[in-house]
Amino acid sequence: MKKAELVFIPTPGISHLVSTVEVAKLLVDRDERLSITFLIMKLLLDTRVDRFIDSVSTACNRIRFIHLSKYEPDPNQPNKSLFSLIESQKPNVKEEVSGLVSRSESSPGSPTLAGFVLDMFCTCMIDVANEFAVPSYIFLTSGAAFLGLQFYVQALHDEQKVDPTEFKGSDAELVMPCLTNPLPAKVLPSVMLNKEWLPILISTARRFRETKGIMVNTFEELESHSINSFSNGNTPPVYPVGPMLNLNRDGDRDVGSEKYKDIKQWLDDQPPFSVVYLCFGSRGSFGVDQVKEIACGLEQSGHRFLWSLRQPPPKEMGLGVEIKMDYRKEMNSDGNDDIVSAGEIERGVRCLMELDNEKRERLKEMSGKSRKALESGGTSSTWLGRFIQDVMDHQP
């Protein structure tokens, strides 16, 4: 029985790491031939990452973690972007993978290197995979519709020579294979309308096309139209293997259980489907004015809410803080300081929470399908099996 090893390279930080580890767990649980090595870039100071890794390492003997050498910034170039920092880790990745290959070759019966599985922000590591003559795969923490949107904008730019940034404020509607209905061009994600960020997005989509396949954190029943849009052969195979659920909250067993006890108790005391939850990601934060508008909108809506509110990093920056601020500013803004008003937020919360019974039943049904998708015989379980088979077929 030929054993295979996959090298996973996630983006630094806890948010992408958790879902990436969850898919790794599914893979090794599904097929005993597989083992997985994570190469961890410690660019940002986050103790949650260490706790999480320790808990997973204890529970899963075929998933291991290697911490890459700490990045030492060039004092003459202090303002490096996140992508530049990831790029700088390529020599360290090559060194560690060379060690894996050497140990495999000198130990009969050890797993052989079968490929790299990369985060969407780590596509530069495709170059390293190519040096070892192994395929690259992507694990996309976002959904299938967003993947289709990336490919659409890249093709629009490269093949039709259209500059997507010109859609800013436009009344045009875009017909995309990945979406059921036309999309107003002016509501494209801000990074696609930003002249500084668009080239990075285009380059990322181009590199996606170089891979042997893309696992997506979604499930077929939720995004059937988007998933079917990839069946024309113009993109690498897409495997909807989600949703990735960290129900046991690895790494939070000691600290988190007490920290969130009161919140869990409060939630348990509320009527079913009565609480709106607000969370803007592990690096999402707002200025004082926007926070006030959100607070007023929530209060005016009259609905119970739970809000994960993050404080912006301090302005006196060390390297880690500097990377965080630069990443958030560039990814979540197009340079404008537009404030979403309390009235708009109130209307949005009411629209979400005051659904009719038919829509509530559809949501409940989809929630059940999301769990069944991961069970044996479920759609995501089936797609996961296809991915494993393709990995074994492409193994050098």
Automatic annotation (TrEMBL):
GO terms for molecular function: UDP-glucosyltransferase activity. Keywords: Glycosyltransferase, Transferase. The keyword Glycosyltransferase applies. The keyword Transferase applies. InterPro entries: UDP-glycosyltransf_plant (IPR050481), UDP_glucos_trans (IPR002213). It comes from the Eukaryota. Belongs to the UDP-glycosyltransferase family. This is Anthocyanidin 3-O-glucosyltransferase. It comes from Salix brachista.
